[in-house]
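> @MW can you paste both from yesterday?
MW: sure, first one:
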Amino acid sequence: MKHIKVILSGGGTGGHIFPAVAIANELKKQMPEAEILFVGALGKMEMEKIPAAGYKIIGVPIAGLQRKLTTANFKLPFLLMRSLFQTKKILNDFKPDLVIGTGGYASAPLLRMACYKKIPALIQEQNSYAGITNKMLSKKVQKICVAYEGMERFFPKDKIILSGNPVRQDIQHVAQKKEEAQRFFNLNPSQKTILVIGGSLGAKTINEAVGENLQLIADQGVQLIWQTGKTYISIAKQQTQAFQEKNIYAFDFITRMDLAYAAADVVISRAGASSVSELQIVGKPCVLVPSPNVAEDHQTKNAMALVNKQAALLVKDADASSLLIKESLALLFDEKKQEQLKQNISKMALPHAAHTIVQEILKILS
């Protein structure tokens, strides 16, 4: 195959950025000579995360539609026109053989312009409920890689590939890292451990529910690894100060998520696409608290895809204060229920997603 050029686009949140990086890494692994460029939204986290991963990115002035009435929405048509003009120039200059979109408004202008110019394109949909951008693009692109069954509700059936969501490679075999994880987090191997993750930015409702119930957790002899995000860490540090000897620890961000998963007996988490895919691969019993502040309530739909297969428990965000810790502790001491959830969530795992997606890319290119 000739020297190929690929543009990847997607962003706004880590859930769109991480799969794009994982696809780029796998593409480089299978085709070291491939030339890769990213296109993202100016001022968003991809402009920092993509260069940190070792790739070049160009930013365009696009923004998402605000669900409440705001003057920012009146600027959108102008931003879209400017973005389309800029992405046309990027496509003309770089001359890609293929364009890949991983969702989010950042990918919309580039993919639309690529389809208009008849450049082959592939999109990756992470959620069980398809986003507006991907639904809009689905009729024009060559392939659509998805993480859930039943996506023909949104996309042309003949274009769908069930690939799963690309996840970080270091979480593939966490069961072998349990002892290392207990040493890393200074935990007692004879006690049970809960891991709390609200996403990289944290989750206010989850944090407040955990903070209010630290005494209950300590009284039950339960250890806690608590990722709070940056905004809550100062409060959490004060709250956990009296419980250090009980092995209750708060972190703004956990760099070794593989060890955090390895140490955990039960996980409390949001239900973003990447988080759910990771939980499927590590096969941990989990209590999901979907964020209500996302487009089309897709986190609830992600969570329900697991709940309907008896692969996870769900606590509504509005009920977190009263129910979250109570339900999580009940699960922690119910080994039969844990085993059922473990077996069912593990069946849903698709651990070779990036490889599957790159195989589809190579088929399109050839």
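MW: second:
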Amino acid sequence: MLDKAIDLAGWLVVLFILGPLVIIVGGSFTETPYVAFPPTGFTLRWYAQLMHRRDFLNSFVFSLALAALCSLVAMLLGVAAVIGLHRHGFTGRQVFRAFLMSPLVLPTIVTGVALLQFYYLIDMDAPVTGLLVGHVLITIPYVLRTVGAGLVGLDPAIEEAANSLGAGGLRTLLRVTLPAIAPSIMAAVIFVFITSFDQATVSIFLSGPDMMPLPVRIYSYIDFAVDPMVAAVSTLLILFAFGIIALLQKLLGLERAMGVG
């Protein structure tokens, strides 16, 4: 009886989470000039209208490039930091770890305002670099958590065996440690990419009219109009996220990518 109640509660939570997605997807096909659910009629007019909006297309490409670059930089810095924290017991290690994890504690709006003021004080005239730094800053903790969990679960005997066979520290890292925690690294890449691609709060403060990520573009658009084209954009983003998950499942498998099993 208890198991059935737990299963029912789980399904109710799933329905609660998926409910808004169903409304958004359904509302993107309505013929009315506003988002309506159930949709009135069926039309692809809003998708066709979206395809002719060069500003949305440019923002989508910019968000893709920014998220990919953020993933690369965050992985290089985060993996190096977490390996150093895991292997070396230096003085102040816990303080340094807490400092790297602090973006998870601070509200993103505080981080955005602080970075904006800092860039103004140093007279920084590189908006793309400033936006990238902001995204890397808030995604580093995901790398530390995910890759750190993979390192904790790694059997130290594997590295010791490599060292006993004559492999140096760098070779052990490249040929043994990193391949062994590859699923955790892949999971961290996914978290960083999605977080950067979907980041609106920090991007609002650091972006400009010439380089506006897609979440900021959508936010700016709904200030003036809330029509089904916004639902069409959201639907395509939902399909994009499912596509990433499906590709991951095809290439690596979700369980292995997330370090399960």
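> thanks! The chain has a mean pLDDT of 78.
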